[in-house]
Amino acid sequence: MKKNTLLLTLSLLLTAGQLFAQGRRNEDKILTFETIYDAPYEINKLWIGFQPIYTELFRTNTNIGYGMEATYYWKDKADFRASFRKPYSRHLDLQRNVAFNNSIEIQNRHTVFSFAEIGGTYHLKDTEQDVESLIYLYSKRYAGAKWASMVPDKSKVQTKVRKIIGIRGGGYYYQTTVDLDRMYDAGKISLNTAEGAALPNDWQEGQPTGPDLNPFIGARVNGGYVGGSYAWIKNFAINPDRTYDDLVKDLILTVYADVLFAGSIRYEDVFYRPDPTNPLAAAYSTADLGKNFFGFRAGIDGKFNRNLSWAYNGELGYRPGVKGQGLYALIKISFPVYGSDMNNNVEAFSK
Predict the structure, then answer these.
(1) Concatenated DSSP letters for 38-67?
(2) For residues 127 and 125, what is the distance between their CA atoms, to the nearest angstrom?
(3) CA-CA distance, 74 to 343, in Å (whole number)?
(4) What is the pTM of this model?
(5) How far apart are CA 265 and CA 293, in angstroms?
(6) Are residues 119 and 25 in the same domain?
(7) In the chain, how long is the greatest CA-to-CA distance?
(8) Rounded to whole angstroms, what are the CA distances from 17 to 46, 60, 90, 292, 345?
(9) pLDDT < 50 regions, the chain
(10) Overall number of domains in the chain
(11) CA separation (Å) from 47 to 215, 255, 303, 309, 335?
């Protein structure tokens, strides 16, 4: 019994000694490095990216698809952006797919969802500051041996950061298929011809009474936005001691918030043939369908100062359009993203 206790005590003492020695070695270790560059103002001027996937949970019409986006930085004065997106197919354009499958007797065309936006940000305040940047150390020899290593896996280095406070503004356009079936069944809207005839309703007082027409229309919204943004730009690379590989940090991160407004919201009428023998469809007015002209959004956008990289964007807000159906959440992933400093000058020296 005493022998076992003695062996256990010795083992604990040896383990504690090793941990203490390793901790002391880690504390005594100093990361030495050479700065290769640290220039947050020397970034690419142009980025063009393809978005192979975006997902939008939109109360009016959920959709999944692809897009394109371009960004241009004009010195330290302003930056500009243009983007476009649409679903891959009808099956990923929810309300269009529902209308295609269920609204056989409605004569309206199925509107393909699409969204386009163009805008710019004026750099109200564009400054550079010295900060401590957290970097994660990496070495090919380091993988799989973190515990045995005598060097911490992260460190802080003194670098520069560029901070931009911006004023944003721009315009947008989108079109979408809008489902009217639930609102019409619930009696929230009326759909009548110029003569006062109502579109046949398959529900009366909560009970089915006739054929389910599933009315739908196309909506088109033109509008704009104004808001503000805050951006952080780091663009540095260091060459640590021989234990680690070169380390780069070149993230351009922007957070923003905007007020959205619509200058024009246009609804189609519902077209239906009450008399199958008459080739002409009757127009049922959608003037009773509510419109919301104001909204908001907040988001985050990240990209990298490289010739070839990826980017991301997340957004949450309430979009102008059909009243009560503006809430949305959006995630976009861009890859590949091509960056260029647009400098084609070649130095020349005489012999």
Answers:
(1) E-TTS--SEEEEEEEEEEEEESS--EEEEE
(2) 6
(3) 13
(4) 0.85
(5) 8
(6) no
(7) 105
(8) 56, 65, 67, 70, 61
(9) 19-28, 147-151
(10) 2
(11) 43, 18, 9, 10, 11
Cis preceding linkage at 336, omega within 30: yes
Confirm if 234 and 40 have CB atoms less than 8 A apart: yes
Residue 138 backbone class (left: φ over 0; alpha: ψ -120 to 50; beta: rest): beta
Contact 70, 82 (CB under 8 A): yes
Q: Are residues 40 and 18 in the same domain?
A: no
- Say what the pLDDT of residue 345 is: 64
Q: Are 339 and 308 in contact (CB under 8 A)?
A: yes
Range of the domain at 23: 1-30
Dihedral angle over CA of 296, 299, 305, 311, nearest 10: -110
Report pLDDT digits (tens) over 237-251. 988 876 777 788 999
Q: What is the CA radius of gyration of the chain?
A: 30
Contacts of 251 (CB under 8 A, 6+ apart): 232, 233, 234, 302, 303, 304
* Residue 160 burial class via C-beta count within 10 angstroms: exposed 0-12, middle 13-18, buried 19 and up: middle
Asked if 307 and 299 touch (Cβ cutoff 8 Å), the reply is no
| Same domain as 26, residue 38 | no
Statement to judge: residues 1 and 94 lie in one domain: no
